[in-house]
Design goal:
The complex is a heterodimer of chains A (147) and B (650). With 147 residues, chain A is α/β, with parallel strands linked by helices. Chain A has 5 helices and 5 strands, in the order E-H-E-H-E-H-E-H-E-H. Chain A has a single domain, classed as Response regulator (Rossmann fold, 3-Layer(aba) Sandwich). The mean pLDDT of chain A is 90. In chain B, strand 7 and strand 8 form a beta hairpin. In chain B, helix 9 runs antiparallel to helix 12. Chain B is rod-shaped, with a radius of gyration of 47 Å. About 11% of the residues of chain B have low confidence. The chains are: A alpha/beta (147), B alpha+beta (650). At the A-B interface, helix 1, helix 4 and helix 5 of A face helix 12, helix 13 and helix 16 of B.
Amino acid sequence: MTKKILFIDDEPEFVRPQVIALEDAGYKVTLEPDPDKAVALLQEQDFDLIVLDLIMPPRREERGDQELDFAETGVKLHQEIRDELGLVDIPIIFLTVVRDQEIRHPIRRLERKYGHKPRFLTKPARSSDVVAEVQRTLGDPQSAELL
Amino acid sequence: MSDGLSRFEELIGDVEAFRLMLDGAFKEWMGAYNVLLADTGEYLFPKAKEQEYFQPFCRMLRSEEEGERLCRESNRNAALRAAQEGEPIAYPCHAGLIDVAIPILIDGELIATVFCGQIRPKEENLEKEGLKKAQQLERELGFKAGELVSLWKRAPQISEDELNNTKDKVWKLISYISKLGHERLELQKAHQKDRQRLEESEALERIARELSGLAGEWDEFWSKVGLVLEQMTEVIGASCAMILIPRSATDTRGKLVVKAVAQLPIADFEGKLYSLGDAILCKVVEEGKIETVPFREYRDPDTICGSITQFVPSLAAELDEVVLVRVGLGNEQAGMLLFFLNKERDVSGSLPIQEEKGTLVHLASLIGAAYHNCWLYQERQRELILRRGWLRRVTHQLLAPLHGIQGYAEDAWTRLRRWEQWDLQAAGWTEYKVQRWKDELQRWKHSFESIVWSSHYAARLANNLAWVVYIDGQKEKEEPDLDLVEDVGGLLIKCARDFQGIARERGLRKVEVNTQSVARLNGRLCVNDDLFRQAVGNLLDNAVKYSNRGTDILIEGEIVGEWAQIRVTNEGIRLYSREVERIFEEGHRGKEARRRHPAGTGIGLTVARQIIELHGGKLTVQPSKRTRRGWQTTFVISLPISTEGCQEEI
């Protein structure tokens, strides 16, 4: 049965190649740039894996005058997926330009709390590396190394 | 007493010489004598020698505890009377003998009293009265009948004239000794004053030094100013307060006022000037009526300074001086310093008032300068934070599209590779046409491959820039999250992969990972994947840029003692011994490197070293060695071998 991946990134134009590479590798990928809609999708459907960006526009309820911190939306979305939606088993791969330890550290802590190995891929990442990480995470056979 | 000496010993000095002098005088004129010290209440000459200094009658009387107590009490009373009179007095003692008390007064202070006499009065009435006292003591203290009285009767007897004559002579001698003591006291005072002034000037110098080097965080400034004010209070004997005037209550500096006011050492002025939590300066206009002056009502520093200036004189009744110094901040007034010189402060040995004021003004100007420095520092920090935020956004904005560029190029390359698999001859293409098509595909693949490594190159620059911004903003170095590397070869091959294309373009043969040697490091290295790849990438970038054509870049691994080493070797330009440390300095580029690539950034090796050091390791390089193909240079990454996992699992 085809495994389903939810790819959450507000800049679809830059991650489309990874989506294509994952589809070529046999996955069914839903690319969702809107974090609110992503949450709705997670409530409605079952996914086998999430690829999550960290820097994203604020959620609907947070679109006020107050400026959000750098990666606040992504970090909060991660917490919501794990703590509020209760999706504690689904593996998440963080595909992001954010390398700041102070942002990554709490994410790692939360992932470990639910028994997951924290999985970060830093942009720019090769599509082949993204596919390999997804396959490794889902326990699927590794396809040949690309470029 | 100081250093175990009595005041007498301090001021008169050589007790033995004094004793010899008195012996000479009294043995001739009177016989027995002793000296009662004012501060200890003890006799100067010890009991062992009392035979020499008391008549036999006195010795027997003092042998009884009660007799000793009565004698001492009689001496003490006489000493006080003589001190009050300011001259020797002759008096009948409690035991019926005539004694003389000669005070040793130095600058009005009673140091000791010399007692001499212990003689029987010659006048008949006085003698009868004296005998009666001796008989009464003999009975009351339980002596055998006649035992004490017989000794009393043997006490020497001199006339009033002889007594007065002797008293005058001794008084002259004691006066001379007192004068010597006075001079010694003056010397001591002068010495003490000198020492105090020296200590003061040393303390003030220390304060000045502390202030002159001050330029940093506000917390540091306020704690230093607090200390300085405390020291100044101690040194000058003035109560000091610094009041900072904000531009407005909402200004960030408005918050500082609360701190400043909270630091007022106002204990001496309680009820007259004090602060409330909400940055309010209060004064008591009359008893029970408090007038408050909220700082926030004053937007204009001149107004508030004026208000304080008006208010301060109301303290004048309690104060000797109020010194008010304005603290400037460029062309603006930043605040003012108030120094309250309390009337009751101890001025003995202190600086003269004019000098004090001069010192206060000087120190106030130093505080003002320190304030100015801190303010400039804060402004710079604010600018830095803004610039850092901006640079962080810029680098992230650069990296996201680079991710896209790389992805699209990779996607195109993958599709071209699939096209290569097509059997075109089966589709009826001629061999010539197929070859042309394959040549074309190769060129396209090469172009897309070049886009991939070019985007990687740009991403590395952006990441180095982001790192410099990041590390610059760190107050304390934060340890990165580390993971155990099970496949070091795989990780290094990934690092090398990004450089194969550019290496070929530059005429190098390849970037080779000696997988057999690096496999020794498997499971023994803890690294942060991103940072490690960035550091190795910077070394490879350096190697690719400065290698000679036709050479290889080699990556090897080795265990050396407690270190896991990764060596990156290339052959190309020479690294001189004088450059081996300097090339890690930010912005520094070697002479040969500048010649070959004038446009380098000079941060790659700096970043690489910082990253490796953040992992608890070292990045070193040795001067180049001559080889057949050029100069061989090896950079060595040494990381501590992991024995107990990477970090505590949270």
